Amino acid sequence: MDGGSSVKSQWFALSIGFAFTLSASLYLWTKKSTPDFPNGDATAEIIKLQASLKGALDKCAAERQGRIRAQKALREALSKSSCDKVESTSYPMAPIGVVHSCFSTRNGTPRQPLLVPLAKATLRFDPARVPQASLEGLEGYSHCWIIYVFHLNTDIEKLWKHPSQSKFKAKVRVPRLKGERIGVFATRSPHRPCPIGLTVAKVEAVDRHKVLLSGVDLVDGTPVLDIKPYLPYCDSIHGAIVPDWVKVDNVLAIASVNFSQGFSSSLADCWSLVEKKSLYSSPEEFQSLIRQVLSWDIRSVSQRSRPVKTKGGIGDDDNVENTVCPASKVESVQDEEACEQDSSNVVYHLLLEGLDVSYGVDSDANVVVEKVSLPSRLPSSGEISLAQCGKHSAKTLPRHDLQCRLGR
């Protein structure tokens, strides 16, 4: 009995010691984890800090809402038309690059992209606006969209005026409709309220700040606003419907393109002067370009219906008799008939890579390319310029509907 009581007494003493030690440790831990406030009022200090945090969060939210309201007001102000100052509705956009194309002038520039597969161009980007890294990955696409400006339109200055004074024409002549007029938004005419163009081209190579393209329908010097990759799964629309007149291809088709006996020698004489800067590797490739370009009737509607020669046009020889029918005098059917002549006697001029290509078209739509020469001079004002009529309206032509109003 005495041994058992001794053991119980020892266990009791150990239990009391353990409980005391645990209580002391718990007291000390609580003391360390509780801040020592001057007045011992921890709850009041916590509430004060929470209120300060909430005030800061509310202030940030109010500032964000203020920025959103200011941005919305700015967008609304930009979208409102101003009768006194049209440029106030402009947006901060500027060209990011320039196209250097094989088409020296508007004449001969295809009316649609990819019609001339050999039509080459180099798109050079402005390094200050387009970092080289912006083009990384573009080489993985076969084609790209190009958004550009019709910078050679002769009526651009009118677009800065109030709509009531701009004299903008709602309808344009369409080559496929043989000059019949149709609404501008039903065509791809360059003469639009906003002279912005959209085209697609094949991506041949990407080199630093340059992109080599083919199949282009862009004249040399075209300013570019943006490029985007072509995506077949969403950009190609199966079952798309177009008007019947768009489906007619033979209206602008050429029966054949042939070259005169002296063409090769004339090209060889000029090629040495342009070879180093040319986009083409050989005279034979350049000749293939000429064939592809002239496989479509690049003449304007008025030229096809009333062919005329240029007066001292680009590349004309001095001993060739040139006749001209000033557009300013063509005001009636009688005047138009008086200017008509056999189309087989008409010499047209096409500038490619800075070289003047002389050719003729007979009544059966057969083209004969006569020669290649260096351009002599630009046509003077008031003359019908066969080397300037094309994708854009010619600078040298008066504002008559008989001239190059292309509806493409």
Automatic annotation (TrEMBL):
Q: Which UniProt keywords apply?
A: Membrane, S-adenosyl-L-methionine, Transmembrane, Transmembrane helix
PROSITE patterns the UniProt entry points to: TSAA_2
**Which SUPFAM superfamilies does UniProt cross-reference here?**
YaeB-like
Domain TsaA-like positions:
93-239
The record's listing under Pfam families reads: TrmO_N (PF01980)
- UniProt key word S-adenosyl-L-methionine: yes
Task: Spell out the InterPro entries in the cross-references.
Answer: TrmO-like_N, YaeB-like, YaeB-like_sf, YaeB_N_sf
Q: Any stretches that span the bilayer, and where are they? A: 12-29
Family recorded in the similarity comment = Belongs to the tRNA methyltransferase O family.
Matching NCBIfam families, A to Z?
A: tRNA_TsaA
Q: What is this protein called?
A: TsaA-like domain-containing protein
